[in-house]
Write a structure and sequence with these properties.
The protein folds into two domains: about 220 residues, no CATH class; about 160 residues, 3-Layer(aba) Sandwich (Rossmann fold). Helix content is about 25%, strand content about 35%. It is built from seven helices and 18 strands. The relative contact order is 0.15.
């Protein structure tokens, strides 16, 4: 096809492709040590050089065209890792009324470096070198660290368990939270006195006395929900734990683990006698021996996923409750979940510790239209070293 109509359709299609590209462009966020990044790149993928182009609609539009050219180059880089192509054609009789081709890149852009920028009367060009890994490799060159908020665990003790089991359950809850806080994937942890979704306090007075006073976690924090079940099975004391991470964008991940140890023999003072503190601490340590690795694996999997947030329009600015503490970089890109039209690509214009301001890469898009949408941050903006 030729003529003005085909040119407009091509530009719209390009923007659609860009949106799909960024949505799948990568899970790598928040760079770690340089040596680890370099080793991960060498093992996970390859470097490619690509060029992006965007037309220059008129005077004074060079900055917007340059941003679109960068997005176009990132699309080309992502396509280098493979692509899934789908088409849809709608016909009325013998006339084609709609013909759409959708290209979803299957590669992950792990890092990039701009090599050249230029503009002329036709438009702007950006040439870059990018490190790309196929999505099938599951590459995660640099996991971001998580900020956790932990309400009191949901504790259930079997009625058949001895009376001292309730105190042991408190010890187990405190120890599990301490293990979560000590995990290398966790940058900070806030102990909440109650579940933000429940008006009534949960957990024993002993547990609540060891928590903080913050009613809710910080913006962008992950909520760590712990559920414990302690029971006597045959002659063993058995612990079952479910740990669920709830992200700020509504995403959820969970893990389970269980452990059992021989139950202590009845005290000469009777079954209702409490186990002395050193014995309780030893039992809690033995029962939670596998909890640390299980929690670290859960946090590592969550840290390998892109950060999510819901966009807000406030004071004439588009704001997301995710900042430097959540692994967002000053040159990160973000993708909306869609809405009335196709998803949009946004860039960070101001970065704070707990939030950032964004604007669309497409200068024709209105920032306010993205309010209320879910946004996914893509860590493609790390310069190569």
């Amino acid at each position: 096809m030729t003529g003005p109509e085909s040119k407009d359709t091509g530009i719209a299609g390009r923007r659609r492709f860009l949106a799909l590209a960024a949505a799948a462009a990568g899970a790598a966020l928040s760079p770690g040590p340089g040596e680890a990044r370099q080793a991960a790149r060498q093992a996970a993928g390859a470097a490619v050089e690509v060029e992006g182009f965007a037309p220059l609609p008129g005077a004074g539009a060079q900055a917007g065209a340059m941003r679109l050219a960068l997005a176009d180059a990132l699309l080309a880089a992502a396509l280098a890792g493979g692509a899934e192509v789908r088409g849809r054609t709608v016909m009325a009789g013998t006339r084609v009324t709609s013909d759409i081709v959708m290209v979803r890149p299957m590669g992950q852009v792990l890092a990039y470096e701009v090599l050249a920028r230029s503009c002329d009367a036709a438009g702007c060009r950006v040439r870059l070198r990018a490190h790309v890994a196929p999505a099938a490799t599951g590459a995660c060159p640099a996991r971001r660290h998580l900020l956790l908020a932990v309400p009191p665990p949901d504790i259930r003790v079997s009625t058949a368990a001895p009376a001292w089991a309730a105190a042991l359950a408190d010890d187990l809850a405190l120890r599990l939270v301490a293990l979560a806080e000590a995990a290398p994937e966790v940058a900070g942890l806030t102990r909440l006195p109650r579940d933000p979704a429940r008006p009534e306090p949960r957990g024993s007075a002993l547990y609540r006395a060891a928590t903080g006073t913050a009613a809710v976690g910080g913006p962008g924090d992950h909520l760590l929900m712990l559920a414990l079940r302690l029971e006597i099975v045959s002659r063993d004391l058995r612990l079952e734990v479910q740990a669920e991470l709830r992200g700020p964008g509504g995403e959820r991940m969970a893990t389970r683990f269980a452990a059992a140890i021989p139950a202590p023999r009845p005290s000469i003072l009777g079954d209702a006698a409490a186990v002395i503190a050193p014995d309780r601490a030893q039992m809690a340590q033995r029962l939670t021996r596998g909890a640390g690795p299980a929690l670290s694996d859960l946090f590592a999997r969550a840290g390998c996923r892109p950060a999510l947030a819901v966009l807000r329009w406030t004071g004439g600015r588009l704001v997301a409750a995710a900042g430097a503490r959540h692994g967002i970089g000053p040159a990160s890109l973000a993708v909306t979940d869609g809405g009335a039209g196709f998803p949009g690509i946004l860039e960070v214009t101001r970065l704070g510790p707990d939030s950032c301001e964004l604007r669309p890469l497409d200068p024709a898009a209105r920032a306010a239209d993205h309010a209320g949408r879910l946004v996914r941050f893509v860590g493609v903006a790390e310069p190569l070293r």
